[in-house]
Amino acid sequence: MSETRSGGGRPPSVECEVEGGVGVIRLNRPECLNAVDxxxxxxxxxxxxxxARAHAGAVVLAGRGRAFCAGHDxxxxxxxxxxxxxxxxxxxxxxxxxxxxPAPVIAAVHGHAVGIxxxxxxxxxxxxxxxxxxxxxxEAGLGLSITNAASRLLPLLVGPLKAKELVLLGEPVDAAxxxxxxxxxxxxxxxxxxxxxxxxxxxLAGQPRAATALAKEALTAGTExxxxxxxxxxxxxxxxxxxxxxxxxxxxxxxxxxxxx
Length: 261
Fold this sequence. Notes:
The protein is of the alpha/beta class. It has one domain (2-192, 209-260): 2-enoyl-CoA Hydratase, Chain A, domain 1 (Alpha-Beta Complex). The chain has ten helices and ten strands. The chain has helices spanning 38-53, 84-100, 116-123, 139-142, 150-158, 160-169, 175-180, 193-205, 209-238, 251-260; strands at residues 2-4, 14-19, 22-27, 58-63, 105-109, 112-114, 126-130, 134-136, 173-174, 186-188. The strands form two sheets. Strands 1-2-3-4-5-7-10 form a seven-stranded mixed β-sheet, with helices on both faces. The protein has a three-stranded mixed β-sheet with strand order 6-8-9. Helix 2 (84-100) packs antiparallel against helix 9. It is globular, with a radius of gyration of 17 Å.
């Protein structure tokens, strides 16, 4: 099964296919390093719904082009401030949908993973990084707020002190250091990233799916209460930052701006 979504003649922001029991979801805005706008948020949520309906045994989340995801698209027209709470909730809902996906989700990260790009990887069950991967949380320095339960999931992986260092200072972390501190499971050569992710996904899809799904559910449940509280707190914080409307580009305004160029 292969499905994509687009509107108004533009390419889809997210590609989705399921073959051999493995779902592959790719962020597809390579011209802007897969920066996140409102359309990508919507399409990514729909993609996870599709792989769940297809009963995929495992899912790989990757990015087209030179990067996994370079964060929020700050170059596009900002969202209407009146719509920001709803947009924030839709983005936070990505965490819920990824974590609720019955199949294990593997993030295949290459190039830049910035801000929400790292947060999307944190939502996944396993993270495989290419040697050229670079992780960074620049939000505090940009007057923005972390989202997608990073305030809960990041300290669980790397510890509270390291999490504060990464978020407050916003310094980049290379793949080797990300592996050392527990941010990723394994590091592979850049050219071997998708093969490694698909090999692990095929292995997971070949296991008894009910048992695998139950194991994921049980392990996720251990942090779920804290995650929901983190998602709600992050929305409140995001609405109080210096540039809340810049968190999410307006896909309609962005389309009009491109047409005017």
